Amino acid sequence: MPELPEMETYKTLLGSLIGGQKITEVAIGREKSINVPVDSFTKQVTNQTIKTINRRAKYLIFQLQDGSCLLLHLMLGGWMFFGKEEDKPDRTIQIKLSFGEQHLFFIGLRLGYLHLLSPEEVKVELKKLGPEVLDPDFTLDAFQQLMHKRKGMIKTTLINQEVLAGIGNGYSDEILWHAEIRPDKKIDDFDNQQLSRLYHSIQYILKKGIEQGGYMENPLYKEDGKTGGYQFYVYDREGKECSRCNATIIRKEISSRKTYFCPNCQQ
């Protein structure tokens, strides 16, 4: 599932590709991917200019000229491609927004969605989300205060979107590996030094993920050299060597999530 670095990469790239551009046509291949009747969605979105594209947690918010918004959540397996019709991937297209001869294709949206909402409705949809972990206001002190109120395992806490916004299954493993902390460690057992290390690992890993274009293999457009540059340290690397201590990375299920870590250097 795309997480904060992937959605931030999409936001930046799409801002340069379609920001200020007019949507000339809309095609809906799967009605369940939208929240209003096809005719209403098409009529309201067509001929609207994309004013801004913002990210909140794992969501993108496309603000349209008339003040309405398109709220995107790609969920598991969702991705996008921008280009001409002849360049599109050989995959089922759930939604297509056209910008003249160029199109934004939404692929794999069987669980994800693109909802047409008012700004007020967007606020309601996102009101339960926790703080943005890369926001300058989210300081070490704010993080420590937040963690002191929590219980349970740290892995489960990191991926709880109502606690911290944008961290998912993959990057939570990366963060914990970087901080040298086991994913099944209880928050009650943390001291301030470990919390400080964890906070700085959150900042480091997510910023590195953004700088390297996230982990998604599929390019956003032809000759896209940005997307997919991030290489995982531990996530999905069961049986391979830890790059820090050369021990074997293992996999364990934590709260029904496949979790990868080094049993030697993560304590």
UniProtKB/TrEMBL annotation:
Listed name of the protein: Formamidopyrimidine-DNA glycosylase
UniProt GO BP: base-excision repair
Record domain FPG-type: where: 233-267
GO molecular function: 8-oxo-7,8-dihydroguanine DNA N-glycosylase activity; class I DNA-(apurinic or apyrimidinic site) endonuclease activity; damaged DNA binding; double-stranded DNA binding; zinc ion binding
Every Formamidopyrimidine-DNA glycosylase catalytic domain range: 2-112
Keywords tagged on the record: DNA damage, DNA repair, DNA-binding, Glycosidase, Hydrolase, Lyase, Metal-binding, Multifunctional enzyme, Zinc, Zinc-finger
Listed Pfam families: Fapy_DNA_glyco (PF01149), H2TH (PF06831), zf-FPG_IleRS (PF06827)
Keyword hit for Zinc: yes
PANTHER family for the chain: FORMAMIDOPYRIMIDINE-DNA GLYCOSYLASE
UniProt-listed Enzyme Commission number(s): 3.2.2.23, 4.2.99.18
Family of this protein: Belongs to the FPG family.
Cofactor: Zn(2+)
Quaternary context: Monomer.
Catalysed reactions, semicolon-separated: Hydrolysis of DNA containing ring-opened 7-methylguanine residues, releasing 2,6-diamino-4-hydroxy-5-(N-methyl)formamidopyrimidine; 2'-deoxyribonucleotide-(2'-deoxyribose 5'-phosphate)-2'-deoxyribonucleotide-DNA = a 3'-end 2'-deoxyribonucleotide-(2,3-dehydro-2,3-deoxyribose 5'-phosphate)-DNA + a 5'-end 5'-phospho-2'-deoxyribonucleoside-DNA + H(+)
NCBIfam families assigned to the protein according to its UniProt record, in alphabetical order: fpg, PRK01103.1
PROSITE patterns named in the record: FPG_CAT, ZF_FPG_2
Residue ranges crossing the lipid bilayer per the database entry: none
